[in-house]
Amino acid sequence: MIHLDSSQFSQKYKDAFYLKVSKNIKYYIEKFIGGTCYTCKGTKVKIDGDKEVEDCLNRIVEEAYLKKIILGPPSELRKVITDMPPNSFLNSSKLNLILYKIFVDGVYEGKTLKSTYTQKAYVKTSCIDKIKHIKQLKQRTCPYCNRNYIFSIEIDRGKANPVIAKPQLDHFYPKSSYPFLGASLYNLIPSCSFCNGLEVKGEISPINNNNEPKVSEIIMNPFEFDNSKFKFSYNLKNIDTLSIDENDVDIVVDGEKKYIDGYQHILGTVSLYEGHKDVIVEMIKKYALQYPESNQDFLNNLLSDNKKVVNNEEINKIFWGFENVENRYHLKSFSKFMNDIYASIMDDKK
To answer: Which residues contact 56 (CB under 8 A, 6 or more apart)?
Structure first.
């Protein structure tokens, strides 16, 4: 539940992304329209005179529409969803399987499409550099939970190429139901393995009605996340702050009900943070013991004496140990949660 900054995508990167992805999509669509038969999820599929499938593929290869699918921001992706035929969302339909074969198997996964009449084996030649995509966003923590770090590391094991440990890319709109968004820039969300696991988000759709994707959304695309629509606070059962423990704390979430319910339903967000009541207890006690105004004045004077130019935000960051500016929440885990709790502590002291 933190914002992803789309401005981190350079124009050079977006241009290269579009060029490579669009070239491969056009190639695979041409093959299908030409009558080639492929196997997808164990089922042989070909257009075979299906007008709905052919019309859909012909529209996709129109340059302006293809650009909307590949590079369109979340608002444009919602328009694409409302444009698509109902069968494109049905896992067992011919249209869905063909779209999955093109966008997911062919482009995102990079499985070179082999005709069922030639070879069944796949050759991995992905046209999406997942590591480069993640690095472009400069995202250090998972945007779904802000709990786990998601940067990549190289592990040298003495071989020709080092092992690269990297985070996962989640399809905000799941590729099983929205295969046509399988290679869309703003549908690829860097995430931790917990949030992207089959037991958590997996293939659950973030919307309840494909005809009204914005109205019916129950979690926000991280590129559009609005901090005001989901905020943490707490209630205390014990007014003696120095003696409280986790049993004295109830976590409260304020904001829009559909998002509060949606984040719990899909990602288990409230349940996850129920396991971090210790953070709230520590912050409340730290405030009571270590953060009176006299201590703030002492730190201000100390920094002034050492000719350090430090603002109040920096002082708070030193004391509390989290990023306290919203556009920097992604740099340190728990920053959104701790900022929300800090604001609630300040409200309690008024």
So the answer is: 84, 85, 88, 95, 99
